[in-house]
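[job 4417] fold queue: 2 targets
>>> target A
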Amino acid sequence: MSKFKSLMGVDYERYKNHVYRVFLNCTLIDNKKDNEDKYAIAAVLHDVGIWTDHTFDYLYPSIEQARIHLTEIDRTDWIAEISLMIYWHHKMSKYQGTHEHMVETFRKADWIDVSLGLLTFKSDKKKISENRKRFPNLGFHTFLVKESLKNLLKHPTNPLPIFKK
């Protein structure tokens, strides 16, 4: 994560807290320790394309950053799974397909955070609230709204390219 600190500037802390909240939400939904490294990598990289490629159409740039990182740490066997986790993390309905458990867990975990805990997918509301207090928003959602509005003005026919059906 610190690799991107200078690139993110003032957004670093707010994104870092989002990453922690998403990761912790993953562990609330799926308590298998074997999956934690994959969730951690996906959490760190899932939105990073916003900064690396200066775009709100950041899914493919984020997937590329995941591919680079997984190659560097000799985990190319995880590329397909983590790529799917990143690509589908804004899917509005249940994901069904390859690596379904991991993709769906990550999708739910991100939605819990993006919804400010309004969506819980039957996860422990108290723990979600505790995690939100431990890792405060710091304006992350305001940042997302501003970026969405900028993208709407630039691309009125495709205002939210990151959302999948």
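>>> target B
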Amino acid sequence: MGPGAPMTTAPLRLTIDKDTGVAVVTLDRPDRLNAIDLAMRDELVDVWGVLRFDDSVRAVVLAGAGERAFCTGLDRGADVPQPNSPYMTDDPLLRVGPKANDLWKPVIAAVSGMACGGAFYLIGECEFVVADPAATFFDPHTTYGMVSAYESMHMALRMPYGEAARMALMGSAERMSARRAFDIGLVSELTEPGGALEAALACAVVVAGYPAEAVQGTVRALWAAKEAVLAQAFAQAPHLISLGNLPAERQTELFAGRRGRFRLR
């Protein structure tokens, strides 16, 4: 298999360039705004596992197909069974990211279009974010009667507390622009229009050219600085979700009545 050859099919694409040592993982459901259904969730878990064992891969870029969205979180059409108990809430996206699957190779997010809700499970486990100027970031959970728990916990460690709180509490009424995300440090580079993937790849090629042991040790050290905080926060998340979420049918009603208007800041 030559450089750049695709290794998997929809809902996910994995491309590995053996010459540069860079893999590109692409969320490939543009017709669903790259929302994650259970098939994509399972395939992401598998792909992170593949990349753990492929020593030719030394850096990874995570992107979304199409121009409209990087990822819009969990697909609302996904059938996610839950135990009938407040003590056993199963979160379908908890293991969707690279760190949750013990991958300690650097992952760079290339964000174009919308990144919202469950997308933050992925962004929260990437080393840094490169964004197109048209990218937007928001969290609609509260609008639809859902607790933003894991998502907000990730974002509270990626941006100032007030910004994370505003994003979570304003719901679908407001979206953070790529410029604002860059100004507060959520985004590390703001590219020319359409340039996010190319810029992320350029960074990945540089990092992949360094000794892998040093790079992976640095990734692990960076994550160690915040994983204890996340672990303590995550321990509370299931109970907060169980207590605060509206019944599923009420969430559906609110979602069906949503309005398309929002403020961009």
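[job 4417] complete. Note on B: The chain has a mean pLDDT of 93.
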